[in-house]
Amino acid sequence: MMRSASGRAARRAARLLTTGVATTLLALAGCGGDSSSEPEGVTLSGVISLPETAAVDGDTNDPNQAGRRSNDTFATAQALLSPVYLLGSVNLRGAGAPAGANYNGGDLFDVYQVDLQAGQVIELEFMADPKVNDLDLYVYAETASEGDAPIGESSGENAYECLRIERPGRHRVVVAAFSGASLYNLRIGAPNDGSTCANVVPATASSIVPREIVARPVADASLDGARVSALRAGALETAQAAASAAPQVLRLPADRTERAAALSRLVTTAAPLARGDGAKRLAAAAAKATPPATDPAAGLPDALREVIDTVNAAKHLRHSGLYEWAEPNYTVRLRSEPVGTYPPPDRLYPNQRWHYEMIGLPAAMNTLVPLKATLTTYPVVAVIDSGIVADHPDLASQIGEQASFTNSGTFSTSADDPSGPGSPTGFHGTHVAGTVAAATFDTTGVAGVAPMARLLPIRVFAKDSATSSSADVAQAILYAAGLPNSSGVLPARRADVINLSLGSSRACPAAYSDAITRARAAGVIVVGASGNDGLSVRDSPSNCPGVISVGAVDARRQKATYSNSDPALSLTAPGGDPRQSTTGTGLPDEIYSTIGDFVGTTRVPSYAGMSGTSMATPHVAGVMALMRFANPAITPDQIDTLLAAGRLTDDLGTVGRDAATGFGLVNAGKAVNEALLLAGGNPAPVPGTVVAQPSHLDFGALRTTEELQLVVQGGASAEGVASVTSSSPAVTVVPTTVDAEQRGTYTVTVSRDALPVGSSFASLAVTTTAARTFYVGISIVTAPPGTAPAADYGRVYVLVVDPDTGTPVAQVGVDVAGGVYTWQVTGVQAARVRISAGTDIDNDGVLCQRGEACGGYPQYGAGQTIIELTGSRTDLNFELSPYGGVSTGGAQLRALRRGR
C-alpha cells in the first residue's frame, strides 16, 4: 500500500521497500575493532528471518561466505531437500567480479544432489544479460536400469531454463556456465504443483543423441569456405558437403580430451565471422577459449560431459552466423502439458495458484465460460497508483485510456511509470494492475483475476516519489468516474471499479469523501486498502464512507500481522506473508504479479512477489469487475447489501462481521453467482463441486499440524465428502468443524517419527458423495534429530542508512544460525536512519540486485520506516526474501552499495 502525503506519512510504513542510494563505499563496520572502550552513539540490533525453503550455493563468489564448500563435481555435490529456493552464482575463468572468490579459477559447474518425485519441476533463472552471459540446466538421473543414464538438458538462450522429472529417484542437478558469469536462482517445487515445463528428464537414456548436432547452413556460397574451416577446427564430421543447404548431422569426436581442444579451436575460428548477438557471445567465449590446466568437468560422468559438449558445440555453431540453426539431435520429443480452461497455462500461474484458489477464482471462471458469448460488456477498472509499465506484454493489450495527476495539478494522458532504477515506487501500480487484469490463457507470464477487464491506469505519484497528495488522488477519482475534474478532460468511458492501494494514517479528508460519494452516485465501485501498520484503525481513503475496505490474510487464511483492521472493515483477501513458505512451491507466500525491472538503465518487463493490503485490494477489485462483467447493471448499493448478508465472502473468525476480517474472505465464485442472479433471468449456474483449500500443504521441517478446508465452489451443490484418506501412515486427518455433508475444516497432522530424514511427499485422497476423487499434495521435511533449521541465504550485509543523504553510516556482515540472522551495529550517531539488508553472492559490492536476497525494516515489500533514534533499539526485526529470479520474488528495489 503506497502513501499519499500526510504529516505522519514519512514515519509510517510505505508500500514498498525503499532505500536511499548508497553511492559512497564504506569500510566494514561492526565486525571487529578495538573493544577496549565503548563506542559513542547507540546500538541497534534485531533478528532477520527467512523462508524455511531458503538455500544457498556452497561456493558463491562472495569470499566472506561462511562454511564455504566446493560443489563442482558429483563427488562434492551439495545435498538439497525440496521444495527449495536457492540463490547461487557460476562463472567462467576471469568473468564476473574480479575480487570474487571464483574469478581466477572459475566456477563452471554447481552440482546438487536431491531426491525427487515424478512431476517435480526444476526451474533455473539467471540475472545477467543472456546475450553475453548464458547458463544451462542439466539433470542426471541415477538409475539401476541398464543402458544410458537418463539425462535431461535445458539450454535455451534466454534467462530461464526448466526440466520436469519423469521418474522418481536420486538426481544430480547441474547449473553450468556456458559463457560469462551470473547470479542464478534455482527452484524445485512439490510434485505436480502446477508448474508447466515442456522439457522432460526421460525415464531412460539421454534426451539427446550424444555428440550429434543437427544444423542447417546459411544459403550463402560466400560462407562455404568459412564453414569448412569451422568444421575442421571443431573436428566435426559430416556425411554431406559443407555447402549443402539441407539440414546436416554433424558429429563431435568421441575422445573427451580431443573434444575439449576441438571446441576451443571452433570458438577462436568462428568468432571473427560472427555477427549480431552471436558476435558478442563468441567474442566472450573466444577470450576464455584456452583450455585450463585442469579439466573443470573432470568430476562429471562421461555421459553427462558428452551431452554438455554437444550443447556447447551447437551453440557455438549457431552463434557463428554460418548456420540458420543448430541444435542437439534430440532423442525424445518435448511434450506440452494439457491446456484447460482453468487453471490457465500461464507460466507463472503456479506462483499465484494459492491466492487465486483461496478466493474461489476457478469456480468463478468455470461459471462464466459457458456464458461468455452472451456477456459482451467488458468492465473498466481504474488503478489509481504509481503508474504502469505500459509496454509490459501481460498488460499492453489490457490498457484502454491512461492519465496522470501529479504535483497537485499537473495532468497528462499518459500513465506510463517513469521510474528509474531504484525508484521508491518500485512499480507498485504495475503489480496491482497485473493482479486485477493481466492477460491470461496465453502461456506466458501471470494470470489476472478479471482478464476480460480493461485497465484505466491513473498515475498520482511523481517520478521517483513515494508520496502523493489528497488533491491529486481526489482528482483521479473524479476523472475515473467520468466527473468534472481539474484537467477539464473526461475518459471516453468511466470506470466500473476504482482500486486505491494507497493511503495515509488519518481520518478521511473531505476531498476524498466528496470524490468517493460522487463516484458512487455515478455507479462506480470503490475499493481501498486498509493499511500495513498492524493497527486497529484503517488508513484513508479506506476509512471513507462508501469504500469497500480490504484487509489481508496469509496463505493459511489467517489475518496477516501487518493488516490494519477495525469493526468497520469490509472484508479480506490474500495479501501474503514473506516469512512463510507453505504452498509447496518453495517460494515465500507472496502475491505474484507484473512489475518493471532494469538491465542497467534499460527498463524491462518482469514479474515479482509482494505482500501487503495493497496486494489484497486488487483481488477484490478484480472480483468486483467479474461481477460487473456478469451483470453490468449491478450497483454499489446492491453490492453493499450482498456483502452485509455474507453472500460474497467466506466467514472467518467469529460468526458474522468482526474487526479482524470484516465479513470474511472474498469468494469470487459466490460473487459471480450473485451477480448473475441479480441480472434478471435465472441462468443455470455451473454445479458447485467440493474443492480443497489450499490444494497443497507444505509442513516444512517445523510444522506438525495444518488446517484444510473442504468447501463447495461454484453453484449450489449437495455434493459432500464421503472420505478423506492419507497415502502415508505418518499423516493423519480428522474433521474439526464440518457440516452434515462433512464439508468444512479438517486438521492434518504429521508424525515425523515414521518418516526418513529428508524430503517426503504424501497425499490425501478426497472422495465425494458424487463418487469423485481428487488429491491434496503434502510436502514434509524431516531434519536429523537435534539439528537446527537449515534455511540459509549466505552472508547477509546489514546497512544503517542516512535517509536524507542515502549514505550508509554503518554496516555489518552476519551469517545464519538456527535459520535466522542475528545482527548488531554499535556506535551509531545519526538521529534518523533506515535499515536495509541483502546478500552479495556475486561479490560486486551491490546489494538488492535481481537474483539476491533483500530486506528492510520493518517489513519486506511494505516499505521502510525512518527510525527516529532516541536511544538503542533491540527490536529491529524483519524478513529477508529473494528478489527477482524464478520467483520473480520482489519489487524493483534501489540497489545499495556496501563497503568492503
Automatic annotation (TrEMBL):
Q: Which SUPFAM superfamilies match?
A: Subtilisin-like
Q: Which UniProt keywords apply?
A: Hydrolase, Protease, Serine protease
Record-annotated membrane-spanning stretches: none
GO MF annotations in UniProt = serine-type endopeptidase activity
Ranges where the Peptidase S8/S53 domain occurs? 380-662
- GO BP: any one term: proteolysis
Catalytic residues, per the record, are: 385, 428, 614
User: PANTHER family given for it?
Assistant: CEREVISIN-RELATED (PTHR43806:SF11), PEPTIDASE S8 (PTHR43806)
Family membership: Belongs to the peptidase S8 family.
By what name is this protein known?
Peptidase S8/S53 domain-containing protein
From which organism does this entry originate?
Piscinibacter gummiphilus
